Amino acid sequence: MEEETTTSSIPENVVLIGKKPAMNYVLAVVTQFNNGAKSVKVRARGNAISRAVDVAEIARNRFVTDVKVNQIDISSEEIANEDGTKSKVSAIEIILAK
Amino acid sequence: MEEETTTSSIPENVVLIGKKPAMNYVLAVVTQFNNGAKSVKVRARGNAISRAVDVAEIARNRFVTDVKVNQIDISSEEIANEDGTKSKVSAIEIILAK
User: Fold this and answer.
1) What CATH code is carried by the domain that includes residue A56?
2) Mind listing the pLDDT tens digit for each residue in B77-91?
3) List of chain B residues whose C-beta atoms are within 8 Å of the C-beta of residue A46
4) Terminus-to-terminus CA distance in chain A, angstroms?
5) How many independent structural domains does chain B possess?
6) Is the residue at A90 inside a domain?
């Protein structure tokens, strides 16, 4: 509890990948590191997984070259469809760290 | 050099993910394990990366439940376009192992 309470509102340096162009998320990752983050989690589900890998690769190869891929986890998540049924969708979490 | 030379013709248990439905590749992975493979590499580039994660998740959760994700690597590869220019594309390698 030594830090400012404002830090608790930051979702632990997570960048959630959606349908926007990859560079939008690359900018988010780079900004987190420039703001002092020691690690950033890049998360995605379904078709966005490919974009998450692009984001991690572009960020570390072009912008924050002192950052390495620390860990990659894949998992399955259950999501509720609009008609009440459930589907399984794959997910990825790529942890970039200095 | 103790093994039969025929093993050298097997491309070290690699399943390359393309544009077919995920279950086609799941079958390939499961077949490799059933043929005695101790590990199988699932590789993909670009948009197929999402499918590679699906394949790994479906295979280990539904078909070969004694298999674990041993290692995941992401990288960037340069590919030549038809007009002679070059593009960078992300790639993934997921190693499943007993």
Assistant:
1) 3.30.110.20
2) 998 888 988 889 999
3) 50
4) 24
5) 1
6) yes
Q: Which domain holds residue A29?
A: 14-97
**Considering the domain boundaries, does residue A40 fall inside one?**
yes
Q: CA–CA separation, A60 vs A96, rounded Å?
A: 8
pTM of the entire structure?
0.86
Cα dihedral across residues A26, A29, A33, A39: positive or negative = negative
Q: Quick check: is B25 in a domain?
A: yes
Closest CB from B46, B56, B57 relative to A50:
B46
A92 DSSP β-pair partners = A44, A74
Q: What is the ipTM of this complex?
A: 0.84
Residue of B nearest to A61 (CA): B76
* Residue in A closest to B51 by C-alpha: A47
Contact B92, A72 (CB under 8 A): no
As given in the structure block, the two tokens for residue A57 are 């690769």
Asked whether residue B63 is assigned to any structural domain, the reply reads yes
Put simply, the answer to whether A49 touches B46 (Cβ < 8 Å) is no
- Residue A10: pLDDT over 60: no
Q: Sheet with A68-80: list strands edge to edge.
A: A14-16, A39-45, A86-97, A68-80
